[in-house]
Amino acid sequence: MNKPLVLVVEDDRPIRNLIVTTLKAHDYHYLTAENGHSAIIEATSHNPDIVLLDLGLPDIDGTQVIESIRSWSNMPIIVISARSEDKDKITALDAGADDYLTKPFSIEELLARLRVTQRRLLLLQASGDADSPVFQNGKLKIDYAAGCAYLNGEELHLTPIEYKLLCLLSHNVGKVLTHTYITQQIWGSSWENDIASLRVFMATLRKKLEPQRDCPQYIQTHIGVGYRMLRVD
């Protein structure tokens, strides 16, 4: 597969050099920016496929870069930040980030996140994303037109809320969706009681989708943050 163009936004020179060296060693094309305003200019000028973004930039906060890019593009944004508090992750994800990697990070994990994002890009290009009438992920199949979901060829008996949750996750494969985002999409609000309801409905959905609770295959929980549907090869 062709390697995407990656914009690296990082003001810390050693970390920036580490990321760039890694990208270069694995034949990725890349651009760099040392502050938020430069990042926005590079993004608008070159339209990269993926952005690796630090939040603690010297001029503006990284969340402002996310919001600026999201005003005109859906390009994947992977945050790489030393901020490890759940509230920081949630703020970045709610602003429009697709993924969040906490410093210090391993090169292997960074490359894995890039591969997942690249596969999602290719799948979106091939299927037209949510416009495709049928979603296929491993042994999971969703027929959007018919309003039915199947696992191993057998129809899943889902409640309306469970089906809406499954569709929302499937339209965002590989992307972490926060509790707030999900509850707003499903119930139109982000009240705490809706987040409690979300956990209940997600638990029942996972029982139907993943009978082996110790081996989640499709839905990954990000504790304190939200949920992500994994791409199954």
Automatic annotation (TrEMBL):
Signal sequence range: none
Function: May play the central regulatory role in sporulation. It may be an element of the effector pathway responsible for the activation of sporulation genes in response to nutritional stress. Spo0A may act in concert with spo0H (a sigma factor) to control the expression of some genes that are critical to the sporulation process.
CDD domains, per database record: REC_OmpR_KdpE-like, trans_reg_C
DNA-binding region: 132-231
Domain Response regulatory intervals: 5-118
Protein's recorded name: Stage 0 sporulation protein A homolog
Keyword Transcription regulation found: yes
Organism: Ruminococcoides intestinale
Listed SMART domains: REC, Trans_reg_C
Domain OmpR/PhoB-type, residue spans: 132-231
Record PROSITE patterns: OMPR_PHOB, RESPONSE_REGULATORY
Residues modified to 4-aspartylphosphate: D54
Top-level taxonomic group: Bacteria
One Pfam family per UniProt: Response_reg
Keyword annotations from UniProtKB, A to Z: DNA-binding, Phosphoprotein, Transcription, Transcription regulation
InterPro entries: CheY-like_superfamily (IPR011006), OmpR/PhoB-type_DNA-bd (IPR001867), Sig_transdc_resp-reg_receiver (IPR001789), WalR-like (IPR039420), WH-like_DNA-bd_sf (IPR036388)
